[in-house]
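Request: How about a record?
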Amino acid sequence: MKQPKIKWYVIVNPVAGFGKALKKWKALSVLLQQEFELEMAFTERDRHAIVLTKEAVEAGHTNILAVGGDGTLHQVVNGMMLQHQKASHEISIAFYSCGTGNDWVRPFAFPKKTKDFVELLRHHKTVFHDVGKVSAYNEKKPCIEYFNNIAGVGFDAYVIQQTKNKTTGQFSYLFGMLKSLFSYRCNHLRVTINGEKHEAISYLTLAAINKYAGGGMKLAPNAINNDGLFDVILVREMSKWEVVKHTSKLFSGKYLDLKQVSVFRTSFFEIEALENAEYVYCEADGELIGAGPFKFTIIPNALKIVVP
């Protein structure tokens, strides 16, 4: 007796990677339909993938495939965490990465050929993956955002705020960083980690689950995505010349050796801006969230991810 095909609910962001996702999806979908039963939805507006994910789980889907960039996966994760139908770790999430930065997939050996990705889905090997939760304020109203990669307060959020309309593809963050360098002002922060308060004039403070962000920058080289802990990276003030001088170290991860950098590991921490709090923002997975004070909490093994 012929076995029924496994069903995947596919969320495609057609504008990811400046249209690259849609082109790749057309080729991939032909192969997938030979192996699986598919139900497809295309995002039509900002944060639409959050709604589509919630609706998919509430309709009984247990396998969700995201096709797009890191922002698409970020939204699927948020939809997964916001739905109340099933425990998030009971749903399999697969990701076909075809955006601009493609940072989340970098630590994994995901196949680049479409036929090999179909094989990956057929084998359906999964691992559990932590999720971060950040509590902040958007227009002075409390808000919560989930993230699966890296969140940050300070310069990284400022760069994203200044480069909302990206036009330079994979190198947009690097160009935006250099452009923003001359107008950015460091923040006076109080960071409370494991009960200890650290006051610093901070260039940026990161909460990392995975290793890469910003289009290939190895910002958290020692982060482990399922250990139940953030790698918290506190970068203290440095001159503009020092930032330019050490830019290459952001890609190798060697910037952690600088005297201005401290690394902590924890499942919960808080950040409070001691000056100009309304202008100190947080970003999560490249999405601008809001202003502080901020609370970061790890949710261990919250996701079930299909991996090679």
Observations:
- The first helix runs from residue 20 to 35.
- The radius of gyration is 19 Å.
